[in-house]
Amino acid sequence: MLKLLLDFPDQCRYAYAIAYEAKITFAKRNFKNIIFSGLGGSAIGADLVKSYLYFESRVPIAVAREYELPAYMDDSTLAFISSYSGNTEETLSAYSQAKAKGTHIIVFSSGGKLKEYASRDNITFIEMPKGLPPRAALGYSSLVPLCILARMGLIGNIDACVNETIKTLEDLRDKSLKNTIGVQDNIAKYFAQKLYNKLAFIYSSSVHFDAVATRFRGQLNENSKALALTHVFPEMNHNEIVGWENPKKLFSSFVVIMLRDKFMHPRVAMRMDITKEMIQKNGVSVFEIWSRGRDLLSRMFSLIYIGDFISFYLAILYGIDPTPVDKVNYLKRKLGQA
Q1: Topology match between the domains 2-157 and 182-318
Q2: Is 231 a catalytic residue?
Q3: DSSP conformation class of 255
Q4: Predicted model pTM
Q5: Could you point out which of 51, 94, 221, 232 has its C-alpha 20 to 30 Å from the C-alpha of 210?
């Protein structure tokens, strides 16, 4: 897992190259909606694309983590079907439905049944390198579809943004995250210590960074084998903030991480400041992690990269291997026997 984290900037660079070389098997470009189908590590990339394009895409984007797809899908829909293994049963079901609805499909996986189906049906297929845990293939699951959308003219050119993102990630890794950097200068090791034996509440703005918070939670779940909760501003101020009264006996076991960005809506930034003060009055530690980089994409990915390393170092503190996900595999075996 450590090697995968250290190599992530190179993965992003390679993912972009793969997307540029991919051959699209259909000519249609005037789509009315875009839908992504995937689960877990294969879906978070879609969440990032959707969040990144919040203000840019004039075509509605949805992410489906289900066996079934929405009724509105038809031949005016562009469907990205993503499963890293190519064998995720929910995604295979979604593929069949997308095909039956006459949608224009782009499949990306490392092989499996999805590759067989795409070959059989002459569907656009983009192959990802094999041998990765799905959550460690984020560069492929996010940048590949983003690049495809740019190539198809559905969004603007993103070459400069991707290059800036890769540079930001490399700088972060070499100066603040890699394992040879001590705790004093390593932001991820520092926060891993703060999360050790605590239940983390992860808060972010809803625009652009909701998917970043979701990714952080998922990495704490899968790498650290730890529970975590997420919410977003401003919605959090209309419900969860009231819940910060009870159960008081558990507050000493809680820690709050706020994901911040200097370009967020000023009223959201103010809400986060006020909320931080309110929570701290309960004796709960609140920490902030600020994004790095200039472009939006680099700022989103910088927070993701920091969170990924935090989850790795927290796993080490717990004395566990971050890579296996035994409970997920057990569940799949039991489902396969049904």
Answers
A1: yes
A2: no
A3: E
A4: 0.96
A5: 94
Biggest distance spanned by C-alpha atoms of the chain: 61
**Which numeric CATH code is attached to 2-157?**
3.40.50.10490
Alpha-helical runs (H) found in 225-295: 240-243, 266-280
For residue 293, count CB atoms less than 10 angstroms from its CB and return exposed for 0-12, middle for 13-18, buried for 19 or more.
buried
Tokens coding 20: 């540029």
Distance of alpha carbon 299 from alpha carbon 248, whole angstroms: 35
Superfamily for domain range 182-318: Glucose-6-phosphate isomerase like protein; domain 1 (3.40.50.10490)
Of residues 3, 23, 238, 281, which has the active-site annotation?
238
Indicate which residue of 90, 115, 198, 222 is catalytic.
222
Query: DSSP string covering 75-122, please?
Result: TTEEEEEE-SSS--HHHHHHHHHHHHTT-EEEEEESSHHHHHHHHHHT
Q: Catalytic residue at 208?
A: no
The residue extents of the domains of the chain are: 2-157, 182-318
pLDDT averaged per 10 residues, the chain (length 338): 98 95 90 96 95 96 96 96 95 97 96 96 95 96 96 95 98 98 97 98 97 98 98 98 97 98 97 98 97 97 98 98 95 89
Q: Which of 12, 7, 2 is nearest to 300 (CA)?
A: 12
* SS3 state of residue 9: helix
CA dist., res. 60 & res. 299, Å (int): 23
> Is 332 marked active-site?
yes
CA-based nearest residue to 251, from 296, 224, 292, 283: 283
